[in-house]
């Protein structure tokens, strides 16, 4: 790792000074396929409140000379929004034993340095400290022949499986966001991946 790079872990209100930096990172990275997210900083500030308001959240920020160039997030599922919780409640899970892994983001210039695995390591250590029995995240579903899928696109399924996660097609959620090229927001289906501890 470059001597100018630092991974800084923050919890709850400690995230406040980094909200806009994290929001801009999310907008830039999620604009790429498969999310194709056409976001705004106002939306990001609202979305990130669940991490800001939870004293048990963890955000690991990758800083390059103080600028946010990467991040990963996790939070107890009970502290997340209802759209994240609903599939688990319907399936009869105890939310108290689940830690939700949010985004793992890196600007392109910082990829391929092992930070993705480091992100999993840090989030799992935090989940263990919370006593979580299950860790989970969700990923957007896209057709294999999606017209905007880049020819060299590599899904992250192999990385996720190597970290012990399995896809659970029965656990899905619907989220709404504005996609690049769309005039207004539309619904997207995301499927959850789970790891039992």
Structural commentary:
The chain is an alpha+beta fold and 197 residues long. It has a single domain, classed as Aminopeptidase, CATH 3.40.630.30. 27% of the residues lie in helices and 31% in strands. The chain has helices at residues 19-30, 41-47, 49-53, 82-90, 115-129, 157-162; strands spanning 5-10, 58-64, 67-76, 98-106, 134-140, 166-177, 186-196. The chain starts with a strand and ends with a strand. The model has no long low-confidence stretch (mean pLDDT 95).
Topology:
Elements: E1 5-10, H1 19-30, H2 41-47, H3 49-53, E2 58-64, E3 67-76, H4 82-90, E4 98-106, H5 115-129, E5 134-140, H6 157-162, E6 166-177, E7 186-196
Parallel strand pairs: 4-5
Antiparallel strand pairs: 1-2, 2-3, 3-4, 5-7, 6-7
Total tally of structural domains: 1
Query: How many helical elements?
Result: 6
Mean pLDDT: 95
Give, in order, the helices and strands. Answer: EHHHEEHEHEHEE
**Structural class by helix and strand composition:** alpha+beta
Q: Descriptors for this entry?
A:
alpha+beta, 6 helices, 197 residues, Aminopeptidase, globular
Briefly characterize the structure:
The protein has helices at residues 19-30, 41-47, 49-53, 82-90, 115-129, 157-162; strands spanning 5-10, 58-64, 67-76, 98-106, 134-140, 166-177, 186-196. The protein is 27% helix and 31% strand.
